[in-house]
Design a protein that fits this description.
Mean pLDDT: 78
Strand content: 15-25%
CATH topology of the largest domain: Alpha-Beta Plaits
Order of helices and strands: EHEEHHEHH
Strand order of the largest sheet: 2-3-1-4
Number of helices: 5
Low-confidence stretches: 1-8, 104-121
CATH architecture of the largest domain: 2-Layer Sandwich
CATH class of the largest domain: Alpha Beta
Distance between the termini: 29 Å
């Protein structure tokens, strides 16, 4: 029912699922979700789960669960216990989208929903490539802010200088510079497969 993580991926994997439930079935949904969490807790590598609804009247439930590795996730997802649990919700829930996140790869593309039927979502770039791209955005930003804010903040306590730097750096990195750098490095982080 969900996109399998890339075999190259290591480290924790978070699965985000949007499930549609009729609002009048809220109590049943709570019980069904808690039963799934209770089952998942018995599997090695389970790190936690949770859910949120945009509003009490919403039919969409955004659910997350996390395992310590793709192998642990695969064990859970292929287990007979999970399959039996999912079958008990057949008349209660409908999965509308599934997404895997293994780290900070969200910087490398716009947030996207993968339809449940779309099992060929692109794999995130390796973490070392993510680290290199972030370094190329973070280093010049930190260096520039260190020089620009040195004189105006002379004599300030360290926490105040760091707070001011973050107030400038985080919006700049999030909305302007990191998206630019990730587009610039996209051919390297997401090379086209040879045909």
């Amino acid at each position: 029912m969900s996109t399998p993580p890339s075999p190259d991926t290591t480290g924790p994997v978070t699965v985000a699922i949007t499930r549609r439930v009729d609002p009048e079935d809220e109590i049943l949904m709570h019980a069904w979700a808690e039963a799934g969490t209770t089952l998942a807790q018995r599997f090695p590598g389970f790190l936690g789960s949770g859910w949120v609804r945009p509003s009490p009247q919403s039919a969409d439930w955004h659910m997350l669960y996390r395992f310590d590795s793709p192998a642990s996730l695969a064990t859970w997802q292929s287990s007979p216990e999970r399959n039996r649990w999912l079958s008990t919700g057949t008349n209660l829930v409908r999965d509308t989208r599934v997404e895997h996140r293994t780290g900070i790869e969200g910087w490398f593309d716009e947030p996207a929903d993968h339809a449940v039927e779309d099992l060929d979502a692109p794999a995130p770039p390796p973490r070392w490539k993510q680290m290199v791209v972030i370094f190329f955005a973070f280093f010049p930003t930190s260096l520039a802010l260190t020089y620009l804010l040195a004189a105006p903040t002379d004599g300030w306590p360290a926490w105040a200088r760091v707070l001011l730097t973050c107030a400038f750096a985080i919006p700049w990195m999030t909305y302007v510079f990191l998206p630019f750098v990730t587009r610039l490095f996209h051919p390297w982080t997401q090379p086209r497969p040879r045909t």
